[in-house]
Amino acid sequence: MGVRGVGGAPSLARGVGRGAASAAGGSPRAGLPLPASRLIHVGQVSHRRVRGRARDALTAVGQMIFDQGMVALEPGTPGEVHTPLDFAPLPGSLSRDLFGETLIAAHLDQLAAAQLGDGGWVFNWQAWSQAAEREWRGVVTVDALHLLRANGR
Questions:
Q1: Spatial separation of the C-alpha atoms in residues 118 and 48, rounded to whole Å
Q2: How many Å from the N-terminal Cα to the C-terminal Cα in the chain?
């Protein structure tokens, strides 16, 4: 099953990771405790010189996200939740080991299935205005297309 671009056109999204949310003003991860919010970035480190330290940090705080219920393991969990894809979006990221490829694949399937008829995705937090909703839908849509492409979908 291929992923459509916005409006049904082929996707041209590339190079805009899940960090685009921060650039758009605010972050859906703002509610995470500091160690967990840092874990999102630690798990994505790929530079060799810091990868060892990142692995140590991941080991130190990784279990916390499970112990404190900070991640929804069931694909399609309703509400304002974080999924394994928030913590381990890209193949080869250190944090993929926390979840395993079967769970990641299930969440990727859910993400692809959540694409709406207009080609976009919706977000799982409250929209404070119609303008904010339109802006965040764009950010979430580009992020979803990038995430799916990066994972070979």
A1: 41
A2: 8
Comparing CA positions, the residue from 24, 31, 119 lying closest to residue 71 is 31
CA distances (Å), origin 151, targets 25, 61, 98, 107: 26, 25, 17, 11
Predicted pLDDT at 4? 40
**pLDDT value at residue 61:** 76
Rounded CA-CA distance 74/7 in Å is 29
pLDDT per 10-residue tile (average), the chain, 153 residues: 40 35 42 51 58 76 85 94 92 88 97 98 94 95 97 96
Q: pTM for this one?
A: 0.69
Q: Is residue 128 within 8 Å of residue 150, measured between CB atoms? A: no
Measured between alpha carbons, how far is residue 28 from residues 52, 137, 139 in Å? Answer: 28, 12, 11
